[in-house]
Write a structure and sequence with these properties.
Layout (H helix, E strand, L loop, with lengths): L8 E6 L7 H14 L5 E6 L1 H4 L6 H18 L6 E5 L5 H10 L4 H5 L2 H7 L8 H15 L5 E3 L5 H18 L8 E3 L34 H10 L18 H13 L4 H8 L4 H27 L2 H30 L6
Parallel strand pairs: 1-2, 2-3, 4-5
Helix pairs in contact: 3-12, 4-7, 4-13, 7-8, 9-12, 10-11, 10-12
Bound molecules: tryptophanyl-5'AMP.
Tryptophanyl-5'AMP binds next to strand 1, helix 1 and helix 7.
Length: 340
């Protein structure tokens, strides 16, 4: 289905449930910055309601929300161009989330691999919110009638569910109200892997800090983690095909490509034939030169939390100009009587 009748609008979100990793930066935030511009209205969100689907210490949640906002801005999200919000302050997300709880089917939710991974063997003891999470995520997107959602590879299934929910709502109520949102999963680093195990995603919840690069790591830490990253003994190939069965090596090349805005093939033209002893310092230098200024700017912004709060307040007011009429219309379609 074409989306010509909807304003081109980007929405995406990140959980303030811990520090930002290089995976969040390359898979998401850097892409958010790329999409900012004349082609789209852009809305970026700290999804604090999602975060509490697993226990969050309240003070940490508040700190992580502000730090995430600082990370967005330091990486290049301009609050005068994009709407920056924390989810809880735009109540229409949760309100539409309830409607979608009543649209989504149990069977759809039970297929969500991220729920199965997160719940593990403990499925009877996790929160109901963790199970229902993807319906709220669909509401985050569709309360803006967003047409495009930039995310990393791990969110693909949730975006398919978002389309299923939109289609079922439109079908059940006989309307063409919610758009079929396009996932935007592009670039060299849609799935940044752990530095210790090339078959596992780089994640803030990995118990090993050496498995990831945090956006707040200093230059020495970044260089040390890259030096110690797992690799194999072979030299780098000169074509992407040569990385196929070498997950750790492919990961480091993907990171290099994404940080330097090149394709993997362009990188391999430059570094093919080199040993990791030579490539790792090149990668470390590149990572420090790209991430260092972002973490310095984050620290500067974090020293002015009132300014961050002002940005979020302004963002929520602008967001509600979009979300309030869409919720009102949704309620109308569903048959909720509104006081006159
Ligand atoms: P979250 O907070 O786990 O991750 C935020 C974004 O970072 C991407 N990402 C990665 N990309 C590449 N490699 C990695 N190792 C890596 N780790 C994380 C994720 O794909 C994501 O784009 N459910 C979402 C948050 C959310 C959302 C939304 C996203 C809530 N509502 C609406 C888009 C639209 C989540 O938990 O992302």
């Amino acid at each position: 289905m074409t989306q010509t009748n909807f304003t081109p609008r980007v929405f995406s979100g990140i959980q303030p449930s811990g520090g930002l990793t290089l995976g969040n930066y390359l898979g998401a935030i850097k892409r958010f910055v790329d999409m900012q511009g004349p082609d789209f209205e852009t809305v970026y969100c700290m999804v604090d309601l999602h975060a509490i689907s697993v226990w969050q210490n309240p003070a940490d949640l508040a700190h992580n929300t502000r730090e995430l906002c600082a990370g967005f801005i330091a990486a290049g999200i301009d609050p005068t161009k994009s709407i920056l919000i924390n989810q809880s302050q735009v109540p229409e997300h949760a309100q539409l989330g309830w409607v979608f709880n009543c649209v989504a089917r149990m069977g759809w939710m039970q297929r969500m691999t991220q729920f199965k991974d997160k719940a593990g063997k403990n499925a009877q003891n996790v929160s109901l919110g963790l199970f229902g999470y993807p319906a709220l995520m669909a509401a985050d997107i569709l309360i803006y009638h967003a047409t495009h959602v930039p995310v990393g590879e791990d969110q693909k299934q949730h975006l398919e569910l978002t389309r299923d929910i939109a289609a079922k709502f439109n079908h059940d109520y006989g309307v063409d109200f919610f758009p079929m949102t396009e996932p935007v999963i592009e670039g060299a680093a849609t799935r940044v892997m752990s530095l210790r195990d090339g078959t596992k995603k780089m994640s803030k919840s990995d118990p090993s800090d050496a498995s990831r690069i945090n956006m707040t790591d200093d230059a020495d830490t970044i260089a040390r983690k890259i030096r110690k990253a797992k690799t194999d003994p072979d030299a780098l190939p000169s074509e992407a095909k040569g990385l196929e069965s070498r997950p750790e090596s492919r990961n480091l090349v993907n990171i290099y490509a994404a940080l330097s805005d090149q394709t993997v093939d362009q990188v391999l033209t430059e570094v093919g034939g080199k040993q990791f002893g030579e490539f790792k310092p090149m990668l470390a230098e590149l990572a420090v030169s790209k991430l260092g200024p972002i973490s310095a700017e984050m620290a500067r912004l974090m020293a002015e939390p009132d300014e961050i709060d002002r940005i979020l307040t302004a963002g929520s007011l602008r967001a509600r100009e979009i979300t309030a009429p869409i919720l009102r219309k949704t309620y109308d379609i569903v048959g909720m009587v509104a006081p006159v």
